Amino acid sequence: MKQIKTLLIAATLFFGATSFTNAQSKVAHINTSELIQSMPETIKAQADMESVGKTYQSDIEAMKKDLKAKTDQYEIEATKKTQEENEKRYVEVQTDQQSIQQYAQNAQKQLQQKEIDLLTPITEKAKAAILKVAKAQGFDYVLDSAQGGGVIMAQGKDLLLDVKKELGF
Fold it and tell me: Are residues 14 and 67 in the same domain?
């Protein structure tokens, strides 16, 4: 009888401890920004972005240099030209300035799109690796410790439906 009682107490403690440890979620964290910045693909993408950016910048500088030369020439010749010709030249210079600004804006948009195109597969690769490691190590939640980060993986219980029910909707 004493052995059965001891066995029942041991079993109760065992199942209680097991259910207690199963009730606790395993949580991990990672700084995704640091991970992505250290990936070789990111370093190559940044080099590509700098190269393209320098190309656009040199094009813009050349366009500005040409415009400056044209403006200087027009200023020198202004006294020898009629008012009508000078007004046409003024409009031409204004149009060229607007073209340079538009080219710079388009270049900026293209750089942003290129950055998105280059970084999207890198971030997806990083996320897949995080999920693989987290699942292999049995984590229920992985939090992003980077500033502004959130939950990357959540396999624990989602309380949304229970809380909605408690609130009556």
Answer: no
- Per-residue pLDDT, 19: 46
Spatial separation of the C-alpha atoms in residues 44 and 38, rounded to whole Å = 11
Residues 5-17 have pLDDT tens digits of 554 455 555 555 4
pTM across the whole model? 0.65
Residues 74 and 18 in one domain: no
Residues of the chain with pLDDT under 50: 7-8, 17-21
The number of distinct structural domains making up the chain is: 2
Candidates 39, 3, 32; CA nearest to 144 is: 32
Question: 162 lies in which domain range?
Answer: 1-30+140-169
- CA torsion 85→87→88→89, rounded to 10°? 90
Order of strands, sheet of 151-154, starting from the edge strand that comes earlier in the sequence? 27-30, 141-144, 151-154
Whether the Cβ atoms of residue 101 and residue 63 lie closer than 8 Å to each other: no
